[in-house]
TrEMBL record:
Residue ranges constituting the N-acetyltransferase domain according to the UniProt record: 6-95
Protein name: GNAT family N-acetyltransferase
EC assignment: 2.3.1.-
Matches recorded under PROSITE patterns: GNAT_YJDJ
Lineage: Bacteria, Bacillati, Actinomycetota, Actinomycetes, Kitasatosporales
Keywords: Acyltransferase, Transferase
UniProt xrefs under PANTHER family: BSR4717 PROTEIN (PTHR31435:SF10), PROTEIN NATD1 (PTHR31435)
InterPro entries the record matches: Acyl_CoA_acyltransferase, Gcn5-rel_NAT, GNAT_YJDJ
Tree of life domain: Bacteria
One Pfam family this sequence matches: Acetyltransf_CG
Keyword Transferase appears in the UniProt entry: yes
Uppermost EC category: transferase
Organism expressing this protein natively: Streptomyces yanii
Length: 104
């Protein structure tokens, strides 16, 4: 089964699921919702899944969902912030007035 990203709203985090049966949590990105926005605060991937591109898949999935929901993004998490920096097509999710604050 291909890895997939799911929103676990009850836990305020996106998870990337992988493993033999596709149900093992390989990583997560914690967030906090506010009026019209989502602040990413912490991202982790399980070292057992290192080198498989799952962190990038997680970031892309979470940011694509934020875009689909019409949310602006505040990337407090260094991983999400760096990922947006490497993928400028996602920089528009960060409010223009906040981009310099995040180095974007």
């Amino acid at each position: 089964m291909e890895p997939q990203v799911v929103n676990r709203a009850e836990r305020s985090r996106y998870e990337v699921l992988a493993g033999d049966n596709g149900t093992e949590t390989a990583g997560f990105a914690e967030y906090h919702l506010s009026e019209g926005g989502i602040a990413f605060i912490h991202t982790e991937t399980d070292p057992r899944f290192a080198g498989r591109g799952l962190g990038g898949l997680l970031a892309r999935g979470a940011l694509d969902d934020a875009r689909a929901r019409g949310l602006h993004v505040l990337p407090y998490c260094p991983f999400i912030r760096a990922w947006i920096g490497k993928h400028p097509e996602y920089a528009d999710l960060v409010p223009e007035a906040s981009r310099a604050r995040f180095g974007l």
